[in-house]
Amino acid sequence: MPVVASQGGNAGIQTITIVVRGIALGEIALPDARRVLTKEIAIGVIKGLTFGAGVGAIAWAWKGNWALGLVAGLAMLLDIIVGGLMGAIIPLTLRALRLDPAIASGVFLTTFTDVLGFFFLLRLGTLLLSQLT
């Protein structure tokens, strides 16, 4: 559980750093939101597939249970996508509200990725419970 949640948070913090830097340097403005979100979703899918496949393979090899690997891998994929998406949405939203995105973005991101990471892992585990036992 902590691995899934922390990787989503790590992906999101990386995105926040890039977006906040872009805002501060004038490279990203609110009209660029759609472009930024599309790019971060694509990057999240690539990172999520890569890390999700790795974690899923390790979980499968460790416990010899394909369903555990699937649950861990999918949960990581989904949480990394959420991390990237929220890592772009949060600072852009704070900027639109005329608040400093560098101050509070990380707090909101951690809440999203932790809650959703645990939800994805536990929900997928519940759906495949018969295969996990």
**Mean pLDDT score, rounded?**
92
Give the SSE order as H and E letters: HHHHH
Number of domains: 1
Secondary structure category: mainly alpha
Overall spatial form: elongated
CATH architecture assignment: Orthogonal Bundle
Radius of gyration: 16 Å
- Look at the structure and give the CATH class: Mainly Alpha
Please identify which CATH superfamily we are dealing with: SLC41 divalent cation transporters, integral membrane domain
Described by strand count, sense and barrel closure, the largest sheet is:
none
Share of residues in strands: under 5%
Fill in the CATH topology: Tetracycline Repressor, domain 2
Distance between the termini: 18 Å
Proportion in helices? over 70%
Number of helices: 5
How many β-strand runs? Answer: 0
The quaternary structure here is single chain
Contiguous runs where pLDDT drops below 50 for at least 5 residues: none
What's this entry about, in short?
The protein contains 5 helices and no strands. By secondary structure, the protein is mostly helical.
